[in-house]
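We treat protein structure as text, and this decision shapes the records that our systems exchange. Because each token names a local backbone shape, the row as a whole describes the fold. For reference, a complete record is included directly beneath this paragraph.
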Amino acid sequence: MKKRGKRTSILLASACLLIIAIAGIWMERDWMDKGTLDSPGIYNGHGGTFKNTLAEMDTPDPSVIYQDGYYYMTFTHNGADVMVMKSRTLDFRQAQSKTVWNPPIDTAYSANLWAPEIQYIQGKWYIYFAADDGLNENHRMYVLEADTDDPMGDYTFKGQVKDETNKWAIDGLAMEHEGKLYFVWSGWEGDVNVQQNTYIAPMSDPLTISGPRVLLNEPTLDWEQAGGPPYIDEGQSILKKAGRLFIVYSGAGSWTPFYSLGMLALDPGTDPLVAANWKKSEQPLLQMDEQAGVFGPGHNSFVTSPDGTEDWIVYHATTSSSDGWNNRRARAQRVSWNEAGMPEFGKPLSLATAIAVPTGAGVIKSEYAKKAGERVEFDGIPATLAAEVPLLIHYRNTSGGSLPVDLLVNGDKMAAPVELAPTKVEQTGYVYTQAALQQSDNNVISLPAAIAGLETTAIEIPRYEAESAEFKGSTEMEENLFASGLGVVKLAPSGEAGGTGNAGKVKSTSTVQFTNIAVPEKRDYTLRIAASNAGKQTARLKVVIDGEKTMTVEVAKTKRNQFVPVDVTVSLKAGVHMIHMETVSDQVSMDYIDIIG
């Protein structure tokens, strides 16, 4: 539990009134109109940002799927087994993980397990993977079927997935299109490692290829042949939008920085088993960007945002042109669509880029929660430290009066009931409270499932980690074992308005900027800034909201690695906001900000 420090509370009386309080100075300039949503009045989660990579460990060949409130990812795990990770968000750095299958020894599929693909097909979970007996020329495709409806549970080995040629095959996955099932993979034409091609074949069920393979694509373009021979066409993935069907694949040597993504587009309304119906893009859709420090972006999968309105690409890449097959970690960015209905991936984003989270992220819906008697349990909530976090409850209360409900965290009842004010029939109410989490990747928050007139629809943890925000100037991020997330942000003093340091020299401003901060209602909110000041005197921190409202708050002296809350109260409109922070005097380390009602 983090100690509470000196609390600074600043109350905004009106849009034109200046109030000077002990904790800070507010300057009002009709700033509230800056907070907006694409659809006014629609709240879809507290937002925030994240940064690549998606995991701290190597995660080559990532396969990601979103199902029933969770993201699941599998990847090439040292070629030894099949591991699945489970996360409430697309950021897997605090995810649960489990090895769901180990191969038996001395079989045709005991070694070099590559590129597992996790898929939910016809009501069941499957994992397709390539493996061999220790010799690459014996790589073939195999499939696991889940024993239960839990993708983190046990799986049964169902055998090889093969066509009549039984040639070398890797990177296979099932494709559903217009009520039919197909298998798409990378394979050799013969028995010599000259080049890899894209093949497709019909399936009678998720375990069985039921017809001859069809050659869809060969690596004939200059960019596809970079680093070869052998020439590469692999890592196939499926993308769908508005009735259109695309196969995105990886070309060029996977061991080179030239590894890139190409695409095949199926002509609308045509047969995917006819090669001429597919149109190939001449240029790669995603390739290395030396300026961004991204090399060899490839072997991707696609996944939607939690609300289903956005498409995201997840791919691996390295940070050096000489990394080869090392340091390949999963990254993500949003897919955009042009007027012609074609996907655009843009340039790969640098590790320093703060990326707005997928829409609906962080909203843990009760429809995907566990029912335990008369209560509903929201599980899978991670915390790197035992600490209090903000909790936002979504609910409907049509009882006509306020209802007190007991909040349980990991089975322990919080000190006081949470009061839920009455709402209209179709109106969602929002109430903020606190929850004491344990250091765990699976905290459980429990609320009543059924009280007359009451429906709990979702919960959120509206915390924004500083290391996931945007940095400018001399701002530095460092790992810190005492932090709420994975690290803290160190803000160097920029001096007064003139931007000079103690030596009188002009310094570059050191700032951290929190973007995509969403609130559900127009009301007063408390911004809780967790900061540490190990200097010899009180530090001053400038906070600017939406580019127009400015305050200067004080951060008292603390012990090293002691992060104390500095609270300020401000009126915000419903919508999306931006919070900019910089130190005026003395260095401050920042852990996070919370939004509390």
Observations:
- The first strand starts at residue 49 and ends at 50.
